């Protein structure tokens, strides 16, 4: 295979220069403004984007290079967000790069990152900055919907492709932030100044609040929670105290659970509703009251809210010193993370999806990793599954008689006697144990923390962004292993029956298996240490108590954050830059377009402008670098000065020569007590001499070859304001013009200094101009200095700041903005006004005959044609913008500008563009494959070869490449180049994966950053393996859940798709935790309702009987307790109860009716009523938690139909996978025209032997899918695959796939 793209050294430069790699307009980032804080994002595209002043910088994660710079914002960028990739990709919808960014002026820009162009630009008149923006999570409805918070209080849903608004919602109070619920498309949480607003009817068609009323509530850092029921839709600040609009103050004490009595039956410990109202009215002001005390402000100090990506209903409320874990459905604080006094405050958090892990960024730059603690369960018999809670203090189960809970109370009604709860105890709080915390960063004025991002693909890689432009990449890794007890892993899973045939089955979920050989090492190398590879799923820990204790070994790993990459941004406080000598025919074979940049701290950096890499960085001077001169391809001459002390008139002047190859520094001049500061150092064209000029003393002439001083000019020597060497040697003596005069005899420069042993040298010329405007010409040959001529200055010319000399033209710029052109050949002098103020610097363009000059002003740059004295292009900086420090030419038609923030912009000839389209992946030295940086045809061909190769006898890459080479040799070479960029060991591992096509597709989906396929194949591979282990049964998918082999479940992020038994236990744990923390009557009512739905009737009765006799609901709750107890003991009144439940539902009391139906065991009918009234998620929850396997299967089938009607096709497919209804999955993929995924899934099912391909309904669809897939193979020029599937259509075999494979 070709090694193109892999010839990059560690420093980021190529060993040989490729002439095909050209210097293109781009921006090399520098320091980051404090206003850019938080403007960064890591997308599924494996790219990291962040705001740098008014620009957006895109970094390639693999090569750590600046991939693109997006220029176009008129103000500082404050928000950046990559588009989601949760849709099916095809040649018609290829992998593309879209990015949304917003600035302080309220502008939102949608970018095409490939070419740096603007797709859409929009803003809302009358608003200020953008507070937050998020892409709408559902990509099936539309891929172009962007929700934007326009400060102070307007949320608009925009069509990001056209820039039109679908709807807007204006609130009466200022808003700060909003967050989408990852588990529900219609749920959005909005952060206001002192409270939260929960939207439950978010849609793409109507503004929030039109279907369901908005609810508002507040959370205080001191654990106080107050809720507001039924607020006005738009005006949450004009509330009147009423019966339906009251706040309940709930003091949640001791959220850590230590020393708290879990028995809450004492009425004195629970305030009644009336007491709560009185306490609330006495202590809490209204939302409209602007005089809220600081210690009672609800959320004014909140810095972030974020939904948990791993647990439904969990919300993290982040303060500087604490994080509250809030249950949004129950309005409970269920946990709290408090910082110790010596730890740095929180700045931002990231909730992981793959595992229940929290990454926390602190203000000192450290990143802490926190993992949720698994609750402790105990099983009295390993053959049944009777689970008990452990008391968090005593770890001993309480007796059933303590609360009067019957052992079969749950399952007599539900038909699940194996899932009863026999004891009661106070469960643990939701606790996140700290696993590791990185070292802090040294925080200074120029180095502060800007933000961080986490890879959504692996969720084990973290990028930290600092204000000095540095990017630090951290990775969560395993450092050591041991076998002991831990809250992280459940080793009983390893010893369960699911591993009886293949101990490597769950290597993708567990870090390693004790005492068993497996391929985990290879898998880790290939899967880049995904979070799911490091930490086991969040499953309750099981302790066997029937003689199997010795078989339970908990496997523990030590996790640690390790820095794996560092990107250094531009120079802090830059002072100058200088481009290396230009490209010529002599240096073509080894030329590198390097530029050197110096800063105020004496550091010098060199960048390779062909790729933007920082190649070298040295601390060269102890004083600020004032100028840089190249004296070869690998050597620099640096100079600078500084005051010796604060109040002295002496200066330290330094001149050194730096060798870039080894960092050797040769100090030429290091005087620390000089009375005049060094102004400039000019190196001759042939690099034989250099001249040092000073502010208040004559110049010095040095021999560059041996570093010796040739001549220190006398005090009466005129001091120059500007000096320049001629660009060529051995030229004729400068002709005297008509205005020239005789040589100044007072200068006494006609000196010939001979030195013994002097080597032969060529004569070189230099001229300088004095403060009086007199131009002096001198010649140097060895140690001999001869004066040439003196030309007095004409009128109308001010002090000359800089001058250049090329061919027969001397060009000068003065403080008045005049450009003076001396034509030595024609003996003419012309003056042209630029009308832009003082000319600070002149740079002549390289190339023979190229006489374009770059003029640097205080407010921008001009490009002039010196020969014709015409201004070609101009760049002007707006008032208040960043000043340009220096300018130089990088090519004959491109300039580079150094800004005061350290950014370097390579500008085209028009000075308007500092960005270029991203070249294709096969034309740049990338170090890793990225599907978003290749053409669609190549990316999908590589994807197909990685996923499956049934047309080959064995899976490999030599045979398909040879087949492609026969048709198109160029295409084959390109594919080989892309395969060579894959991670080390990838191709080798794919050839021997234990789970065939399904596992290859999962790995490929992660490699391609395909969110939709990653979720699909994660669920598909899980249930394919489970179905394969149940082939000894009757094949009915309804019996799969009841198998004893199903101890492993998907993690909590898959929620309703998880194993039914473990899901039920999680819900019981949740309701028991809420029961232990309830305080108000409203919380008790919610808890009692959930207990009834989950079959915990005895405990629900106890809660009903706790109502205070002075409460207005005392009589009603007492009757409900009697009714509940009567229904459970006698079934004679079930028909009446069912009638009452039906009437309640018909009259708008849905949940009360559902509770009654659950009390009499009519859970199926309860689910159907919930479905009828549109509560599909609640119906699915109730079915999964309470119904038998068969009834749950039927409910989920109906749920699938609803998801299809509500444009949630991907979720419908995942639900069908969770049912192991693989025929339905094929049908859904077929109806949605996802033919490529359908073919792959069909082959995966055949490999696992879980699908009957001989069924008539399936056979009719298979031929159509083959025909469409053949068309896809033809479009990507895979003729071998097309021929293979053509044979499958025409074959008469009962199982064509197996026949063709054999």
Structural features, described:
The protein is α+β, with helices and mostly antiparallel strands and 1302 residues long. Helix content is 22%, strand content 28%. Helix 19 (1189-1205) runs antiparallel to helix 20 (1209-1218). The chain is elongated.
DSSP helical segment count? 25
Content-based structural category: alpha+beta
Low-confidence stretches: 1-17, 230-297, 377-426, 482-527, 541-555, 730-759, 1032-1047, 1296-1302
Distance between the termini: 29 Å
Radius of gyration over C-alpha positions, nearest whole angstrom: 37 Å
Largest sheet: 6 strands, antiparallel
What percent of residues are in strands? 25-35%
- What does the overall shape look like? elongated
For the largest sheet, list the strands in their spatial order. 14-15-16-17-18-19
Query: Could you state the oligomeric state of the chains shown?
Result: single chain
Summary?
The protein has 1302 residues and is of the alpha+beta class. The chain has 25 helices and 61 strands.
